[in-house]
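<instruction>
Derive structure tokens from the sequence
<data>
Labelled lines for chain and fold
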Amino acid sequence: MAKKTAHDDLLAPVTLAVGQEELLLDRAVQEVVAAARATDADTDVRDLAPEQLQPGTLAELTSPSLFAERKVVVVRNAQDLSADTVKDVKAYLGAPAEEIILVLLHAGGAKGKALLDAARKAGAREVACPKMTKPADRLAFVRQEFRGTGRSATPEACQALVDAIGSDLRELASAVSQLVADVEGTIDEAVVGRYYTGRAEASSFTVADRAVEGRAAEALEALRWSLSTGVAPVMITSALAQGVRAIGKLSSARGGRPADLARELGMPPWKIDRVRQQMRGWTPDGVSVALRAVAEADAGVKGGGDDPEYALEKAVVAIARAARSRGRG
């Protein structure tokens, strides 16, 4: 659960989201955007990576317009901004523009600490988004997810969900959403057992592993087996998303020992070794194509399409093709 400061005005001129938990960072952004659009449905949102925010860019984005439109400017991985751009941001923090909300996402470490300190000194609204490394924290997260939906789940059910799914908060959140959508009344341990077992988790990640390795036929076979044994489609889209994101993270990371990369990327060392093997054949464009395919499949299995199975098959084929993109250029 993201922790917020007492100064919790979602429309504050500057929001600072600090930490490395991607789900919580994304939710911090979504909350601000939703609040801005509740006030002005035409709010413009600019979501920028560090390399997209060059010196002068922030001034252009926040300069007064003829129509005084509301705008949300999101800067991801702010700790990676160039020194010149950091100067621009610091200057902006001293005199934020009206109708503009700046959202800075910062990992919270020593890198880029001067910007972090400047934002805090300027009185930015702050949201803590730390990695949840302790089982007790993940259990509390699951309980809060159920409470947020207004539904009841027994303590045993919450614990069973954490035991079955593990440490990925996106997958835990998706699992709660799936259970709330599919099950009436109180959610108990027996319900969780039917939906999420060790076999179900393993089979969904088998689909993802074969897909990111470019082995389309094997991935499709694993997909059909998973669906036939009752694995929830949302589990499979979550596993596909994790597989592709891991490829993207590792391919953009600096070289180093698995232990060093594990600390940097928040993955266990054994996973670094496996993803390195799976990376062969991938390109940055391939990762982008695969992420779009996962997003389309996620929409398809959550009601955006008529055939969730077809949506998953389409995504698996697209990811497997993207995995072989380097050899086809």
Notes: The chain has a mean pLDDT of 86. The first helix runs from residue 22 to 39. The first strand starts at residue 3 and ends at 4. Residues 202 and 226 are 9 Å apart (CA to CA).
